[in-house]
Batch of 4 targets.
Target 1
Amino acid sequence: MGEPQPRRCRPDDPSHAPVQHRRGCRTRRRRGRLTEAPVATPKLGWWWVVAPILALGLLACAFDRILLGGYLLAAGAGLGAIIRLVLPKADAGGLAVRSRLVDVTVLVGFALALAFLTSVVDLRPLP
């Protein structure tokens, strides 16, 4: 004779795989069946303050104003770092990607690198 079956199903029971596959953070039980929960889109928040400055910097670079464009890009990244440092995660919106320390460090490093590279670039034509 075989071993007696347990009363409760084990988590690795293959007959329950379809039901377990649908469980997760984005599903919920509604009236006895599993349905997809609506996915909330994050607010971009203060990201819209930084985006036009970055767009102007890219536009300036596209029209051969490399120094102006580089400094605008550095200023936009620096402003993004300040906003991310000051505001809480809920208000920072699209600027809050990782932890506050990592976000600010990356944005400040990017701003300093851009400002340095823009200041040392030599745009004089070759003889």
Target 2
Amino acid sequence: MSDPVENIKEEQVFQSIINKKGLNKDDILNLNWDRFVVYVDLRQKGKVVQSGYNDFTLILKEHKGESKNRSLILVVSESSKLKLDNLLEIISRSKSLNLDFFLAIVDKYGDITYYNMSETRLSK
């Protein structure tokens, strides 16, 4: 069984850049660059990352080879609009999977700001 970390598109492009191999034009054009920037940032920090459940999410794992997931990361551009209902749905999904939730906002310069978010119920 192959390691899920090795199956991620970002990993293939990342390794191609490191190994100075030629990249396929379609691989470059179809890549979510904001997610790629977050992926590279997390890898540079020594984190183990794999694909999330869609093109805008990543899963942060405890250790390579370990099946336990640690966090769900939603990657958005600072110029994109995000509906509150969608955000609450993703937070709820991460809570049901027992994952911490982070919102990674990528600005136009590629700088990333991470926000740890959770659902809170206020008592009356």
Target 3
Amino acid sequence: MTTPDAPAESCPMPRVSQAPTDDVLALILARSHAVAVVGASPHPDRTSHAVCTWLMNHTPFELYLVNPNAGDADIEGHGFYASLADVPAAPDIVVVFRRSEDVPPVAVDAVKTDAAVLWMQLGIESEIAAATARAAGMDVIENRCIKVEYARLRDQIVANTIA
């Protein structure tokens, strides 16, 4: 049980080495179309649900929600896929909302889909997953929120889309 005076759990502070430069991030986001979100939740109180909803309403991305436990649920009309292998399009970005220790198999699956980017959300980092993705030629982003980065870099993303 948490007491009012207990310290809140926190995410590790993002390190510069966990993501490319802003210019590269903006280019990645500008050139991406299909985004698979592994660990997306049908529950509105979950962060992954809020991020997916925001991405659906504020980006041109086609989102594919991946959660084997979601059943027939949906987020704004987008149904869920049981696995990355079930997603009908090759995702440009695989966004991960899973515990860090659960990410290595997701990286293996992302490689199999020919994804270009493995994106681990804020608080998620895995050296093993990052090494797997990099060995396959993928870009890797750790401990960053795709919603926050997209909003922060929107002007650069738009400029890169037009260029």
Target 4
Amino acid sequence: MSTAPETAAQAAQAAPAPAPAPWYAAFPEPQSDLKTISREEVLEMLKGNTGEKAGKDFILVDLRRNDFEGGTLSSSLNLPAQSLHPTLPTLYTLLKSAGTTKVIFYCGSSTGRGSRCARWFSDYLVKVGDTSTESAGGIQSLALLGGIKGWVAAGGEYLEFVEGFEGSVWERAKSQ
């Protein structure tokens, strides 16, 4: 048994590798306050009870990538959170050109990716000076409270607005 001090190489080999930085560490920390919207409000919008048209007046953005399974909310775009920040200028231009007044971001729970991306888009709106109210043609950036998990858990008529709904995926998720 050797009592000689370890070499630097031996010490480095024995030390656990540092955990990789989270995906969002490559981008600035959002500065804007989070604004949210309830699933009840979004359901009324999807039903057409508010006079707002999906894909025109409001857009739903599903931010899931690896966990994009089990269905998505009707009329949603899938823009994975990991690639959203560099595309903010393009997303803004598309939404502004279309006259969209609400962009609603969501992920599984909307407490991580959903809230982060909604705040990044709010930051971008401030950067380009688009801080006018919705009625004055401004865009609102919102996160769906509870995300798609909350939506599916609500059951009933909410499930009518989940495209590609796969109940087995949600049952499996409940048991984990």
